[in-house]
Amino acid sequence: MSVDLDLATDEWVKSSYSDANGGQCVEVSRTFTRTHGAVPVRDSKNPHGPALIFPAEGWSSFVSGLIRGEFPAV
């Protein structure tokens, strides 16, 4: 299922772990999350490209798992 949402005016925040040299850059939209209870994630190098939208609880569990080291580095 595809839903066309306009995320262009949302407040996007780059991850503090993103590579400052243009490497792995991930952003999330705080505005959308507060309004819709879901977390859009995009590649900051392609801000007009697609965004993946996750349920807020699922995203929170994923981030908590990262912090606890549950996912091995690749």
Q: Based on CA inertia axes, which overall geometry fits?
A: globular
The count of strands amounts to 4
Count of domains: 1
| End-to-end Cα distance | 30 Å
Query: Percent range for helical residues?
Result: 25-40%
The largest sheet is: 4 strands, antiparallel
The low-pLDDT segments are none
As a percent range, the share of strand residues is 15-25%
Give the spatial strand order of the biggest sheet. Answer: 1-2-3-4
> Count of helical segments?
2
> Averaged pLDDT, please?
83
Protein name: DUF397 domain-containing protein
InterPro entries: DUF397
Organism: Streptomyces botrytidirepellens
Pfam families: DUF397
Structure commentary:
The chain has helices at residues 30-36, 56-68, and strands spanning 12-14, 26-29, 38-43, 51-55. By secondary structure, the protein is an alpha+beta fold. The chain has one domain (12-65). The N and C termini lie far apart (30 Å). 11% of the residues are buried.
